[in-house]
Design a protein that fits this description.
Distance between the termini: 27 Å
Number of helices: 6
Order of helices and strands: HHEHEHEEHH
Largest sheet: 4 strands, mixed
Oligomer: single chain
């Protein structure tokens, strides 16, 4: 387990907050995010895990923490994973372990895990396809979502299935250079 210096952790958190505020909320990529974010119901955690085993334990701990905290206090968790999974495909493979972890904790139907990565790539797209940017983040992120909150949010959104198409249109209009400019990055979009 990596011991993270405070300044390093703060830099990672700041870059992640910037992505949440400018991309996820600013571009309205997730219409449900703003309400919980402005009410401080989003937990951002930087993991020092350097292996799958370490990360699985931290994921389990964060799932338990989320479930042990009232939704009014904590609605969702972004587990930032900067020290494992530079490779997107390794990260994507870990999602099976994340699902297994939810099953072992008997949290299937209570929580789900969404994923974001700097090199995110949807099936049947090339690495440079602009649609991938809808799920690109500065670092690998496991988003722990309460199923009840997701159900409630989707009931308030008339056509939740249209979000994906809308997001692709937004990032397509923005383009890769616009995405980098939005996040003030050179090479980390």
């Amino acid at each position: 387990m990596k011991l993270i210096e405070v300044s390093e952790e703060q830099a990672i958190l700041e870059k992640t907050r910037c992505w949440v505020e400018k991309a996820v909320i600013g571009l309205n990529l997730c219409p449900f995010a703003k309400s919980v974010y402005v009410r401080n119901q989003v937990r951002l955690v930087v993991s020092g895990a350097e292996s799958v085993k370490e990360l699985q334990k931290i994921l389990a701990d964060e799932c338990n923490h989320l479930m042990d905290t009232s939704p009014e206090e904590l609605d969702t968790t972004l587990l930032v994973v900067p020290y494992v999974f530079e490779d997107f495909y390794d990260f994507n493979d870990f999602l099976d372990i994340a699902d297994l972890t939810l099953d072992e904790l008997e949290l299937v139907g209570e929580l789900q895990v969404a994923s974001f990565h700097p090199e995110y790539q949807f099936d049947d797209t090339g690495p440079d396809d602009i649609s991938n940017y809808t799920n690109r983040s500065p670092y690998p992120v496991l988003h722990l979502i309460r199923e009840a909150s997701l159900d409630k949010a989707t009931q308030q959104y008339p056509d939740a299935s249209a979000i994906f198409d809308s997001n692709i249109a937004k990032v397509t209009e923005l383009g890769e250079e616009g995405w980098k400019k939005l996040l003030n990055t050179q090479n980390d979009a």
